[in-house]
Amino acid sequence: MRARLRPELKSKPRSIWGPALFFALIPMMGWGLRADSESTFAVELDFAFGQGEGVYGVWLRDYDQRPVGDSQRLQTLSHLRSMDANWVALGPEIRMPNPDLPQLSWHESLESCRAKLRRVRDAGFKVMLLPRIESPAFFEGKKPRWRGDIAMGNSGDWQRFHDRLEELLVEGARLAEAEGAAIYCLGLEYLESTRQFPDRWRAIIRSVRREYRGLVTYSANWYREFEEIQFWDALDFIGIGAYFPLGAEGQLDLNWSKWRRRIEAVANRCERCVVFTEVGYPNLGDASRKPWDWQSPESRRLAPRHQARCFEAMFLSFENRPWFRGLFVWQFHPDPKRAAPWEYDPRGKPAEDVIKHHFQARTFGK
Q1: What is the pLDDT of residues 306-324, one digit of tens each?
Q2: I need a labelling partner for 85 at 20 to 30 A (CA). Which of 198, 244, 314, 363 fits?
Q3: Which of the given ranges, 8-12, 58-62, 106-110, 125-129, has the highest pLDDT on average?
Q4: Higher-confidence residue: 68 or 25?
Q5: Closest to 219 measured CA to CA, from 133, 138, 160
Q6: What pLDDT digit, counting tens, does each position of 152-168 carry?
Q7: How far is C-alpha 29 from the geometric centre of its chain's CA atoms?
Q8: What would the 3-class secondary structure string for the chain be?
Q9: Residue 342 and residue 327: Cα distance in Å, rounded?
Q10: CA-CA distance, 91 to 129, in Å (whole number)?
Q11: Can you give the pTM of this predicted structure?
Q12: What per-residue confidence (pLDDT) applies to 294?
């Protein structure tokens, strides 16, 4: 008996998996066989993640549109290799001038994104491609809006929003397929859309899978969205933007244990492994209380050791959990000299040593 691949993957050359290896992988994932085609989930994950190896990934910040081949970017990729990172996430920007109107377009050309993707793959990394909606409204005013605020005022605008988003995601899927991105993530934190229109998201997923044969996921927000998504069964694993509030530094381990139980409950219910598609902490004294908050840094104290402790608690909470396959650290700047001291970028701070230690230990997914 040979492990059966998803129908859309049959045309892509794959290694032959014998029954002994296939059944050996099932206990790793923590679940038994399922009756449908998703019973090969463990095998599919190991094609992309590497057998017995998790995702030890980083986000590469790329907002400044500098040339792909500049020496600083190459040095940064070499530095990430020295940390034993094995994945890099890239986030081509989808520009949305107004979060209330269905106007979406690529902020950079797909050819520019193609060149960046090739550069990262040539450096020896596997790639997750995640087209991200960005808006000027996310960075303006005393109370900036965010992706969770994206909401159309009527059914017609919602239809136009989803139609245009689907069009752009399919274009991105073709790029991901052509350039060998191993994971394609369909978006992040679109709370109102995913909550109100799960069937529309299933249609988007089907359209993407017609163009792309790798692993497909979505990056759900930590606050309820990851528990409320109704289409995890149509995706290959659960992606979470893991900016969970953890309280004071002395409460990190306790509060992670509470969040971990909720995350594991979703993994068990949906029979899917989990990857933190984003996790990070700004270099600020209250990072554990609100790790998503990077605004108003001038009124908050720098705290590099607290940033490191936040990462340490997170790694220790999820090591040796078969259902947890890894993470992407948010985020490394191609040129560390351009990163402000308070930013998420851990390079040159105690947090970097913590990340490197756990990347080298390779304790996820076991």
Answers
A1: 999 999 999 999 999 999 9
A2: 244
A3: 125-129
A4: 68
A5: 133
A6: 999 999 999 999 999 99
A7: 20
A8: CCCCCCHHHCCCCCCCCCHHHHHHHHHHHCCCCCCCHHHHHHHHHHHHHCCCCCEEEEEECCCCCCCCCCHHHHHHHHHHHHCCCCEEEECCEEECCCCCCCCCEECCCHHHHHHHHHHHHHCCCEEEECCEEECHHHCCCCCCCCHHHCCCCCHHHHHHHHHHHHHHHHHHHHHHHHHCCCEEEEEECCHHHHHHCHHHHHHHHHHHHHHCCCEEEEEEECCCHHHHCCCHHHCCCEEEECCCCCCCHHHHHHHHHHHHHHHHHHHHHHCCCEEEEEECCCCCCCCCCCCCCCCCHHHCCCCHHHHHHHHHHHHHHHCCCCCEEEEEEEEECCCHHHCCCCCCCCCCCHHHHHHHHHHHHCCCCC
A9: 22
A10: 6
A11: 0.87
A12: 81
For 192-205, how does the pLDDT look when each residue is reduced to its tens digit (9 = 90+)?
999 999 999 999 99
> What is the pLDDT averaged over residues 116-124?
95
Confidence of residue 144 (pLDDT cuts 50, 70, 90): confident
> Residue 31 is encoded by which pair of tokens?
């679940």
CA 217, CA 232: separation in Å to the nearest integer? 8
> Do residues 201 and 193 lie in contact, with contact meaning Cβ atoms separated by under 8 Å?
yes
> Residue 361 pLDDT > 50, yes or no?
yes
- List of residues 6+ apart from 59 with CB closer than 8 A: 88, 89, 91, 278, 280, 328, 329, 330, 331, 332
Distance CA 343, CA 297 (A): 9
Contact between residue 355 and residue 44 where contact means Cβ atoms under 8 Å apart = no
| pLDDT at residue number 300 | 86
